[in-house]
Amino acid sequence: MSSDLRIRLGRVELGNPIMTAAGCAGTGRELARFVDIAQMGAIATKSVMLEPRAGRPSPRMAETPSGMLSSIGLQGPGIDVFLERDLPWLLSRGGTPVVSIAGGSAPEYAELARRLSEAGGVAVVEINLSCPNPADQGRDFTDDPAEAARVVHAVRSHTHSDIPVFAKLAPDVADLVGLASACVEARADGLSMVNTIRGMAIDPATLRPAVAGGLGGLSGPAIRPIAVNCVYRARAALPDVPIIGMGGVRTGADVLEFMAAGATAVAVGTVNFADPSACARILREFEESVAGRGVARVSELVGAAHRPTGASLGG
Amino acid sequence: MSDSGPVQMRSPVLTVRRVDAYHAITVVAPNIAERFRSGQFLAVAVGGEHSGMLLRRPFAIHDVKPDYGGTVEFLFSVAGAGTSWLAERRSRDLLDIVGPLGRPFPLPRDPVNCVLVGGGSGCAPLFPLAQALRRRGCRVDLVLGAATADRVCGSITARRVAETATFVTEDGSFGVRGRVSDPLGRVIEETRSDVVYACGPMPMLRAVTAMADRYELPTQVSVEESMACGTGICMSCVVPIVGDDGITRMARACVDGPVFRGERVRFDDVGTIPFDALGAPGWKAQPDGRGADREAG
């Protein structure tokens, strides 16, 4: 028996729950050489800003056990080129765009949201809140729930009502559930979790930080249990809010794990670097797994881990 | 998914052998062999299916043969856990490889005189380039160097594919003592070179480009930046490159390169973000639309 793979993120329906994570699929074009992007639930594009951005000095990454540290600094061409070149290309190939936006102030985020709404074709706007806030001594927006809420509110107010707005959260904050609740109160339609975790590695030869900026974002399977826990806690506190889960997804079984913890959709990130055809493989593994379990609709899996032991699933 | 683009495959290892200080692995990979153009590279997964080493290792393709439908060979030195694992592979083991990746060396339309300069394992991609140039009727001269004699690769093949081969070692244990840029001026003069190709560490490429510039010769350099994905997604391997419009962009070595025109590489600024690069703090959008993002040249 084949399962109904469709899921809903607010007002938007995706063909299946498996998508790419922002920053781990380029604009879809690079990955399209290895994966049929129209087959994926959605393609989250690399965070776009108002202006072109050169990013940070190199070395920008370091391999760590089952993970990597990266410090790219949001290199990108800016919203003009994205709207002119990247978004039309993604739509022409049948991709479902989840567009990640990044900025330095609530008005900047709002302007990006407005331009994306006008362009048409955007399925979801995802707010990358792990950006330094110059008005808050360069701390990330996620470090202060009030600042994060201000951005979410501005984006929601400038985004077409048919387009859900998701707030992307980092796991290493003082009060994750408080931050998630603040975003939802500011009218976020859903949550994306998690972004990378701040980390550091020292080069054993030079005894200097392995990544040029010192600090990097840790990603990959190393962070998966942390990410699953974050999704679980957010689901428990906010059971009606859809979550895009991510953090070290490598197999179809990992997708099931995130969905059971409470994710409605699951994004594949760093593993795309290791295995450029990973998304297609993970989707295949997931389909086989849910069919084997006799799950009629995969949406039934969402939050399964929160149900009492012995509660029936699927059928 | 196109016929000319890279493919990912699980390729059986044909041979693993020692070549002086290097290891050479040949894999059966017909789809990669048929697409290959000189200067392109492979990204090889290390550690097996459940490996904790997530990042692919990039290696220049050193040789392509028609045996078994098509084989490709790459050279490496053992430098860590990933390359140790590779060195332990045996015939018939499977390797997860992606390739051919990157922009190849451009070939001249006319039969001209070419000097190919390699440093260390950077010599590896020059051999298929030499053959491609010879097929076009070009004269090929090689200048190959390394720190020590056992790190100069392909010294026997070099004499076969090139009119002349000059060897250089830093310790003087083989050929001329010094660096590859030292005898380059003499080779350019003696062979009446029209174009210079180079592959090796960044300081070497900078010295070679400066020397070729003295003779007003164009240089094509292949950079050896560290990469995480090799497929253009992660943005780790960026190098400051000046475009046709004079604007510097942080170009990805894996998809915009690894081959660049030498005079377009801002060697002094590698590892940094030049203040005036597109999107850097000192960069300002021009009212006439200059600065729109385009492929770096």
Briefly, what is this?
The complex is a heterodimer of chains A (315) and B (297). Chain A is of the alpha/beta class and 315 residues long.
Describe this structure as you would to a colleague.
In chain A, α4 packs across α5 (224-237), α5 packs parallel to α6 (252-261) and α6 (252-261) packs across α8. Chain A has a single domain, classed as TIM Barrel (Alpha-Beta Barrel), CATH 3.20.20. In chain A, the strands form three sheets. Chain A has an eight-stranded parallel beta sheet. Chain A has a four-stranded antiparallel beta sheet with strand order 5-6-12-11, with no helix packed on it. In chain A, a hairpin with a 2-residue loop joins β5 (61-64) and β6 (67-70). Chain A has 315 residues and is of the alpha/beta class. Helices cover 30% and strands 18% of the residues of chain A. Chain B has 297 residues and is α/β, with parallel strands linked by helices. Chain B has three domains: 7-101, Beta Barrel (Elongation Factor Tu (Ef-tu), domain 3); 105-224, 3-Layer(aba) Sandwich (Rossmann fold); 225-289, no CATH class. Chain B is built from six helices and 15 strands. Chain B has helices at 30-35, 81-87, 126-135, 155-161, 181-191, 202-214; strands spanning 7-19, 22-28, 41-44, 57-65, 71-76, 94-101, 113-119, 139-146, 164-169, 176-177, 195-199, 219-222, 238-242, 248-252, 259-261. In chain B, the strands form three sheets. In chain B, strands 10-9-8-7-11-12-15 form a seven-stranded mixed beta sheet. Chain B has a six-stranded antiparallel β-barrel with strand order 1-2-5-4-3-6. A two-stranded antiparallel sheet of chain B has the order 13-14. In chain B, α5 (181-191) runs parallel beside α6. The relative contact order of chain B is 0.12. The chains are: A alpha/beta (315), B alpha/beta (297). The interface between A and B is large, with 45 and 41 residues.
